[in-house]
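Posting here for the record, re: manganese (II) ion.
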Amino acid sequence: MYDINALQELLREPKEVMITTHHKPDADALGSSLGLAGYLKKKGHRVTVVTPSDYPSFLNWMEGNDDVLVYSAKNDALVQRIINESQVIFCLDFNNLSRINEMGEYIRQAKGTKVLVDHHLQPEDFADLNFANTSAAATAEIVYDLIKDLGDGNLIDTGIGECLYAGIMTDTGSFRHPSTSKNVHLIIADLLHIGVKTSDIHRLIYDSSSELRLRFLGYALKDKLVVLREYNTAYIAITAEELKAYDSRTGDTEGLVNYALSIEGIVFAALIIDRSQAVKMSFRSVGDFSANEFARTNFNGGGHKNAAGGMSMDSLENTVAKFESLLPLYKDKLQHATVR
Ligand code: 5GP
Ligand code: MN
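Prediction output follows.
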């Protein structure tokens, strides 16, 4: 329930606040976290942003980035202490504690008030206050609306605005996904009004590839793309050796799955990567074919209707075989997916 009064009450006095977000944070995860952190600091709270893993270096420009604590086995005790001492714990851009690895159980048992702010489907019931809105385009959109609804829109400065802009821009696919509502455009108009340099942010995020990353993209599209016309499906599977050969860094494979989906007639795309500890999968779909349902049912995952992820503890080869073997079960849906 959207209980803004309860949030207002919770934040009335300065508090010890922790903000966390999902494993391998993307621009919405980190941008919504740092945007909210910037605002709460202005209100006098003591805020620590903790991420459960590292994240791409093309996000390092965000205001507050230098103070982010990245969880690792080495600082486990410190992170546990922060979690236990926090009076308020914000969980941003994820809705299931399994998405934050070891930190999930620590937070489940923490005494502080847990506040969920998220836009993914099927939220787990672990929070005390819930600002889940599955029709929001981005968690950053919800954060923006929350700050406004708390009566503090005037505190959104360019530093906070840039973080929120990055989240909304990336989660809407640069304002092209169906989630790009009137509210989204009105928020962007407001961010432009306060001086957010929108095209600079687009460039910082999308035009900062290394040469090897671009050559890897070329290799993946030329040699690794598999198109299964019968199922209107395309996928790319990448081995651990290939990642190594191209010196792949965190974030380097982001966006690759969208190329598979950009082929005419393709309604379902997958990127399957051997990450050594597990095989990680990204799913994208168009129209009414649910990537979320496919990920949940078959690969212990979830996400949004048209963008979801999952994983497998099996080998890459077996995971790809399982993926292909599932497609006949969805043949009818894949052949009749309404795109428009
Ligand atoms: P991506 O493919 O970009 O990693 O993720 C697409 C969407 O699915 C994101 O909204 C992400 O949060 C969600 N997602 C990715 N992997 C998983 C997963 O393993 N489990 C769940 N529940 N969601 C995931
Ligand atoms: Mn998001």
